[in-house]
Write a structure and sequence with these properties.
Layout (H helix, E strand, L loop, with lengths): L11 H13 L7 E7 L3 H14 L3 E6 L2 E3 L10 E3 L2 H10 L5 E5 L8 E3 L3 H7 L5 E5 L8 E2 L14 E7 L7 H4 E2 L2 H7 L9 H9 L13 E5 L7 H16 L5 E5 L6 E4 L1
Parallel strand pairs: 1-7, 1-9, 2-5, 2-7, 4-5, 8-10, 9-11, 11-12
Antiparallel strand pairs: 3-6, 12-13
Length: 268
């Protein structure tokens, strides 16, 4: 695992896109399906990527294989929000410009979430849109997540996956920072009131049911929220060492960043 640390990064969006573009270029297809899993920033990341791809002149579809924030409660920044499959297809084919972003999911009884469309329809939509950004996991706002046998829901035609984790879990109680923590504390003889420290983070990133579940070696881990620490450089060094020691056999691409901030630090 090689490091490329770039100082004074002003826009994490533009620099993240450099890495995403490099990853997408590995595939011969012109239409890319990106699954976003994990916790601690998925929604913000998808919105950021949608904006960046649109600025590149790409047609973008945001969707889900699980559930996604209702557009009535979250501004996705898209040109259209719809649960009409025909509308999703017609809009991109009739558009004079490819620079368009659409949110496509199914309305549900829950006012806060919309649900996944038919998976076969999503496969078909790959032929219509340059980029599909798919939320393939749920964590209810927690910075960390332990998966069940049902998730993440990464479809067979997905080109690659981005796994997100929030480092602000450090210092919080397990029950307040890890979604699905009960099996974890039972197996590891811990209490839900134990504080998340670096040893628990180490256990987390090595847990096959947590961060790395569903990932391939050329996928991406995004470690989000590095700007929450006053001593950023110390924490960056700590996480570099942590991931170098524990991730080199799992994943080639790791990024330390703050999705909502203006500070980023690359591990590629």
């Amino acid at each position: 695992m090689a490091y490329d640390t770039r100082e004074n990064i002003k826009s994490i969006g533009k620099n993240l896109m450099k890495l995403i573009t490099a990853l997408t270029e590995r595939y011969s297809c012109n239409h890319v399906f990106i699954s976003v899993i994990g916790s601690g920033g998925k929604t913000s990341l998808i919105k950021l990527l949608s904006s960046e791809f649109s600025h590149l002149g790409k047609s973008v579809l945001i969707t889900t294989t699980t559930k996604i924030q209702s557009p009535f409660f979250f501004d996705w920044g898209t040109n259209l929000v719809t649960d009409d499959l025909n509308m999703v297809k017609k809009l991109v084919t009739k558009s004079l410009y490819n620079k368009i972003a659409v949110l496509y999911a199914l309305k549900s009884d829950s006012s806060e979430k919309w649900c996944a469309p038919n998976f076969n329809d999503l496969n078909d939509l790959k032929n219509y849109y340059d980029v599909i950004l798919c939320e393939a996991d749920g964590a209810k706002g927690f910075p960390l997540k332990i998966h069940t046998e049902k998730d993440p829901v990464i479809l067979s035609f997905s080109n690659f996956t981005i796994a997100v984790m929030g480092v602000w879990a450090l210092g919080l109680k397990i029950k307040d920072s890890i979604f699905g923590y009960k099996p974890y504390i039972e197996r590891n003889y811990k209490s839900e009131d134990d504080i998340v420290d670096i040893d628990i983070i180490k256990e987390y990133i090595n847990n096959p049911d947590a961060l790395i579940k569903g990932l391939n070696v050329n996928d991406l881990i995004l470690v989000n929220g590095i700007d929450v620490f006053k001593n950023k450089e110390e924490k960056i060094s700590m996480f570099k060492n942590l991931f170098t020691d524990n991730m080199q056999n799992y994943i080639n691409n790791i990024l330390l960043c703050s999705i909502k901030g203006d500070y980023g630090n690359w591990l590629c």
